[in-house]
Automatic annotation (TrEMBL):
Domain of life: Eukaryota
Catalytic activity: L-seryl-[protein] + ATP = O-phospho-L-seryl-[protein] + ADP + H(+); L-threonyl-[protein] + ATP = O-phospho-L-threonyl-[protein] + ADP + H(+)
Name this polypeptide is given: non-specific serine/threonine protein kinase
Annotated EC: 2.7.11.1
A single cellular component GO annotation: cytoplasm
KA1 domain segment(s): 473-521
CDD domains, alphabetized: AMPKA_C, STKc_AMPK_alpha
Length: 628
C-alpha cells in the first residue's frame, strides 16, 4: 500500500535530500505550479537546545534580502508549533566540491564560468552589507544548468558602517589570515581571500594552503606560503596572487577583480549588470509572468492583485511564490542562452593579452586611451571640488603644482593609547557630554545638541554656517549619540574613529568638529606646559653650573680654616685617674643624647613624597596628543 504523501501548505513533501544540524532537508513540489523546491525542516526544540535561535533568524533574514541569480533563493517560511519549514530553491546537482573531486582541475573556461558567478553573487551580498565568511566549494551548489548557487549563510553577518567584525569562523583552509589571527576585519576582504582559494582549487584541483597540522596550516596562511603550478596562464598567475595577499589593505577588491582581463574574458551580458541595476530590475513587474500566474486554474487573481502581491504588501503569499517560481525558471533559461552566446563570441576573438599588473585593459571595457582620458578628467574634477571645499584655490590655477595630501579616516596620533583616551575624556567633559565606557578603548557618548550650536536671534540653536529654518528648532532634550573608538593602525600609530549612532548628520559633524577643536586645544596646552617645564629645567641646570663656577677650590677652603688650638687640661684627682673620653663609651652616648635631637626609627624602605615630581618633563607630564 502506497504511503500518503505529506503536504505542508502548498507543498507535497518527497524524499530526503540530506540531514542537517537542526533537522532534515526534503525534496518537495509546489502543488500549484508544479515546480520543485527544497524544504529545510528546522526543529524548534533542537534549535533552543543548541542556542541557535539568533543564528537561524539571521540566516533567514539575510536570505530574504537576496534575490540574485547565483544565491540560493528563499521563497517562504512556514511556521508551526514544533518546526520551521524553510522553502528554498532546489539545486539537484550537489556541491561544487564533489564536482571538483570527480573531474580534478577544470579547464580555464569552465573555471572562469564558475568564478564569474561566484564573484557576481559575492558582490551582490556586499552591496547589501552581507559578508558570507564561509565561502568554500562545499557551500556552492550546482543546479540543472550547471550554474552556481551560493548557499549556507549560517556564519554570515551584517556589516555596519564604521564597525568591524572579529569572530574567527569558517573553514581553516579557506579562512583569511586576519580571521584565523583573531584580528578585526571589515568583511569584504575575507570573502575575497576565500574566492582566491576557490579559484586556485578550480584551476589546480588542489588547495593552496593545506596541512594535516592546524598550527602548520595557520603558519602557511599567515605567511602566504603557496606555489603556483606551471600550467596556469599568465593572467591567472597575476589574479590569484593579488587575491591571496596577506595584508588585507593591499588585497584586490571585487570591483578590481571585475576589471581584470582574465575575468572579463567570456563574461555573459547578465553578469555585467551592477547590483543597483539588478535591484531596479527586480522592482519591475514582468507582465508576461503575471499573466501566466493569472491563468493558473487554482489561483483566482487579476493582474492588479498579482502586482500588489509581488511589489506591495498583499496577504496573497501564494500569488507571490507562484510568480517567483515561474519567473526564476524563465530567467534561468535566458541566462543559459546568454552564457552560450558569450562563449561563442569569445571563441571568435583573440584572448586578452597580459598588459600590466593592474589588469585594467579588457576587450569588453573601454579602450586604454579613452580610459586614461576619463581617469584624468575625473581626477581633475575631484581636485577642483576638493580645492573649492577647502578654499585652497590659487589665482594662478594649474600653473602652480598642488601638493598631494594624504587623507585619513578619523584622527591619528603617535601618543600612548592611555594618554589619548585621557585627552578624549577631558574634551568630552569640557563640552558637557555624557559617556559610557563599553571597552577600554571604545566609549558611547551623547551630547545635548543645544549646547553645541550657537544661539540664533529667536533663541533657537542653529548649526554653524546655517540659517535657522522655522520648522527645525532643536528641543532642549534632543541628543546626538556617537561612538568613539581608538584603533591601532600601525606600530605606535593610533586612530580615533567617530561613528554616528543616533541623530542628524549635520549635528554629528558639528559634534565631531567641536571634539576635534577641544583636542587640539588640549594638545597645544600640553605642548606649552612641556616647553615651560623644559625651560625651567634648563634654568635650574644653568644656575647649578654658575654656582659650581663661583665656589672656591677645596685647598683654598682648607687654607682659610683656623688652626686648632690646644685645649686646657682639666684638673683631676691623681688618686682617681679619669679614663679617656671614647666615642663609644656610656658617657659619650649620654652626651650625644643630650646634644642631638631624637632620630626617627627607619625601616630601611625609601618612600617618595607624593608631592615630589620628577624633574624630567618627558616623564613628569604626559605627552600631548598630536592631531593631524
Amino acid at each position: 500500500m502506497d504511503q500518503v504523501p505529506v503536504v505542508i501548505g502548498n507543498y507535497r513533501l518527497g524524499k530526503n535530500l540530506g540531514i542537517g544540524a537542526f533537522g532534515k532537508v526534503k525534496h518537495a513540489t509546489n502543488v500549484i505550479t508544479g515546480h520543485h523546491v527544497a524544504i529545510k525542516i528546522l526543529n524548534r526544540n533542537r534549535i533552543q537546545q543548541l542556542d541557535m535561535t539568533e543564528k537561524v533568524k539571521r540566516e533567514i533574514n539575510i536570505l530574504k534580502q537576496c534575490t540574485h541569480a547565483h544565491i540560493i533563493r528563499l521563497y517562504e517560511v512556514i511556521d508551526t508549533p514544533s518546526d520551521i519549514f524553510v522553502v528554498m530553491e532546489y539545486v539537484p546537482h550537489g556541491e561544487l566540491f564533489d564536482y571538483i573531486v570527480m573531474k580534478g582541475r577544470l579547464s580555464p573556461d569552465e573555471a572562469r564560468h564558475f568564478f564569474h558567478q561566484i564573484i557576481a553573487g559575492v558582490e551582490y551580498c556586499h552591496y547589501h552589507n552581507i559578508v558570507h565568511r564561509d565561502l568554500k566549494p562545499e557551500n556552492l551548489l550546482l543546479d540543472a544548468e550547471q550554474n552556481l548557487k551560493i548557499a549556507d549563510f549560517g556564519l554570515s553577518n551584517t556589516m555596519r558602517d564604521g564597525e568591524f567584525l572579529r569572530t574567527s569562523c569558517g573553514s581553516p583552509n579557506y579562512a583569511a589570515p586576519e580571521v584565523i589571527s583573531g584580528n578585526l576585519y571589515a568583511g569584504p576582504e575575507v570573502d575575497v581571500w576565500s574566492c582566491g582559494v576557490i579559484l586556485y582549487a578550480l584551476l589546480c584541483g588542489s588547495l593552496p594552503f593545506d596541512d594535516e597540522s592546524i598550527p602548520n596550516l595557520f603558519k602557511k596562511i599567515k605567511s602566504g606560503m603557496y606555489s603556483l603550478p606551471s600550467h596556469l596562464s599568465t593572467l591567472s598567475r597575476d589574479l590569484i596572487p593579488r587575491m591571496l595577499v596577506v595584508d588585507p589593505m593591499k588585497r584586490i577588491t571585487i570591483p578590481e577583480i571585475r576589471q581584470h582581463p582574465w575575468f572579463q574574458h567570456k563574461l555573459p551580458l547578465y553578469l555585467t549588470f551592477t547590483p543597483d541595476m539588478l535591484e531596479l530590475h527586480e522592482n519591475t513587474l514582468d507582465h508576461d509572468t503575471a499573466d501566466e500566474v493569472c491563468q493558473i486554474p487554482r489561483l483566482v487573481a487579476t493582474p492588479a492583485e498579482v502586482e500588489q502581491a509581488v511589489l506591495g504588501s498583499s496577504d496573497r503569499n501564494d500569488l507571490r511564490v507562484a510568480y517567483e517560481l515561474i519567473l526564476d525558471s524563465k530567467r534561468s533559461r535566458q541566462r543559459a542562452a546568454e552564457v552560450a552566446m558569450a562563449q561563442q563570441a569569445a571563441a571568435a576573438t583573440t584572448p586578452p593579452a597580459f598588459a600590466s599588473a593592474s589588469g585594467r585593459n579588457s576587450p569588453n571595457g573601454p579602450a586604454p586611451a579613452l580610459a586614461l582620458q576619463m581617469q584624468a578628467q575625473n581626477q581633475e574634477k575631484a581636485e577642483k571640488a576638493t580645492a573649492a571645499l577647502t578654499g585652497s584655490v590659487s589665482p594662478s590655477g594649474a600653473s602652480q603644482p598642488t601638493r598631494r595630501r594624504r587623507w585619513y579616516l578619523g584622527i591619528q596620533s603617535k601618543k600612548e593609547p592611555a594618554h589619548v583616551m585621557t585627552e578624549v575624556y577631558k574634551a568630552l567633559a569640557s563640552l558637557g557630554c555624557d559617556w559610557q565606557m563599553l571597552e577600554i578603548y571604545r566609549i558611547k557618548c551623547r551630547c545635548r545638541i543645544a549646547s553645541l550650536m550657537p544661539i540664533a536671534g529667536d533663541g533657537r540653536a542653529t548649526p554653524f554656517g546655517f540659517s535657522p529654518s522655522p520648522g527645525s528648532p532643536h528641543p532642549a532634550n534632543e541628543f546626538i549619540k556617537i561612538y568613539l573608538t581608538l584603533y591601532k593602525v600601525q606600530p605606535s600609530i593610533y586612530l580615533l574613529d567617530f561613528q554616528k549612532l543616533d541623530g542628524n548628520p549635520f549635528d554629528f559633524m558639528t559634534l565631531c568638529a567641536r571634539i576635534i577643536t577641544e583636542l587640539k586645544a588640549l594638545s597645544q596646552a600640553s605642548r606649552q606646559l612641556q616647553q615651560q617645564l623644559a625651560l625651567q629645567q634648563q634654568q635650574q641646570q644653568l644656575a647649578l653650573q654658575q654656582q659650581h663656577q663661583h665656589q672656591p677650590p677645596l685647598d683654598t677652603m682648607r687654607a682659610q680654616q683656623p688652626h686648632p688650638q690646644t685645649l686646657p687640661t682639666l684638673p683631676h684627682d691623681a688618686s682617681h685617674p679619669q679614663p679617656p673620653f671614647q666615642p663609644g663609651s656610656a658617657p659619650a652616648r649620654q652626651h650625644m643624647a643630650n646634644v642631638l635631637p631624637p632620630v626617627p626609627h627607619s625601616t630601611g624602605d625609601s618612600h617618595h613624597h607624593p608631592g615630589v615630581v620628577p624633574s624630567d618633563p618627558a616623564t613628569s607630564t604626559p605627552e600631548s596628543m598630536e592631531l593631524r
